[in-house]
Amino acid sequence: MSKVPSGLFRSVIVLAALGVVAAVVRGLVLFGVLDAATVEQQVLANASWLGLRLTAGELREFNTPFEAHPFVTALHVLPAVVFMTLAPFQFSSTLRARCLRLHRWSGRALVLLGIPLGISGLFFGLTTPFGGTLEASGVAFAGALFLGSLISAFIAIRAGDVNGHRIWMTRAFAVALSIATMRVVLLVLMPLTGAPVQSLFGLGVWLGFLLTVGAAEWWLRHENATPNDGGRRVVASRS
Ligand code: HEM
């Protein structure tokens, strides 16, 4: 496996950290540790400092589904924190070589947490999409690829196909990261267009998804890997 370029590595770490922070803040609001109104005031103040067009009404509308469905929100943000924290370590060849047992147990936990994470994301994206039909279509695509990739990765490793497992896990991780990329895309699109965040949200979901999954596919091709690559197919021993 070739070395990950430092730019790609740094982007992954920044996006993963962004995802963790967003999920932790949402979790702290959900469990009443942070006051929702205070957090909204802070978000509005930050947006105005950055020169972004964001109204209190838009922010309220965005937050309402999470307050209306606290259980589904918990099913989303709690696995999200663990998933985004553990997943990057799964790609470290040093860690895998030194501690394969840890990689296996962490991987099993990630697949188990990924299922409620993906299903709850689909729930919000399909039933209460802030960005309308364009967001719903993007989330449907991303959610299906995320869940399908996780299941394919699990099936591949049970069959001893280490390379196929790596490819599908890379795709699943890319979809999870795309949720953070979408935030960066919105931060660029909002001042560029001056359009309301709600009208840009669906485009942000799609662009975040295409850019991140596209980068992952580029990386996989760069490594010249295919799921049926007989030359690189390795049969894993079980713990
Ligand atoms: C580990 C990866 C993920 C993290 C860290 C994450 C984080 C979050 C957070 C914090 C929220 C609450 C909104 C906010 O505070 O900004 C949220 C909402 C949402 N997430 Fe995720 N998420 C992840 C994976 C996914 C996946 C795989 C999907 C696709 C099915 C998804 C779809 C959604 C949708 C549709 C919403 C609601 C957006 C709306 O209001 O329209 N998420 N996510």
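^ protoporphyrin IX containing FE complex. The radius of gyration is 19 Å. The pocket of protoporphyrin IX containing FE is lined by residues 19, 22-23, 26, 62, 65-66, 76-77, 80, 83-84, 117-118, 121-122, 124-125, 129-130, 135, 139, 142-143, 146, 175-176, 179 (CB under 6 Å).
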